[in-house]
Amino acid sequence: MEAKGVVSLDCCPIYGFSCVVKREVLGAKVMTYKRKEVIGGCTLLLGDCESIMPTIGQFDLVLTDPPYGIDENDKKIASRGKLAAPKDYGVVDWDKKPASPEAIALIREISQHQIIFGGNYFELPPSSCWLVWDKQNGSNDFADCELAWTNLKKAVRRVHWRWNGMIRKGDDVRIHPTQKPLGVMEWCLTHVPNVTAVLDPYLGSGTCAVACIKAGIEFTGIEKNEQYFYAACDRIRKAYDQPDFFVSPPEKPKPIEQIDLLTGDTAA
Question: Less packed terminus of the chain by CB within 10 Å, N or C?
């Protein structure tokens, strides 16, 4: 149920329409967001995850890549261009500080399992299972690997997935400066069986959403940056417009063979 009060009015920087801050009453809790998009099995919320997560319910898994607080801005990326001009992602200031301890605590509170990229930047308990993405990125000042902390009861696992500027595995179109490859997110999902509902409170470019769509998993994403929110919505819509991208076409039924009961021969 939606509350009647409107607390602010904003304009979408991409599509130009106005959006209001909305409130949904969920039992005794109120969810506040600027916009809600439901696309297939994906629910996407434009707003601050620390305000939304306490009201959103429980999930089997949180798979997310929060800001690390290492100031991964557009100027820093531009200085790394060697073989080709780096992509201009516009003004990027969301990585000035890491996700707060309160946000990390909420992630752990509302989910049974967690996979948190950049876990080495946050205060998290010891884990037997870190997921290691080896980027095979050659000689540059990017990290050779990225680490995802998990609460999974298993051994450390590693995936090799080249991600070195224009030399990379897969055909991902990058729309976010710290975007993860779709293949890496799909690999992460394989480590948590029987998942039916996933949350990514730092939606970014929507890669986690696309991985969940391909796996047939319900997805909820939260993003406070309007530019990335609407870009992720577009990406997810386009993914749903390509059903064969997610589901292999059914095999053609084999013709029924008729066998002569007396001779055992197959009928022509």
Answer: C
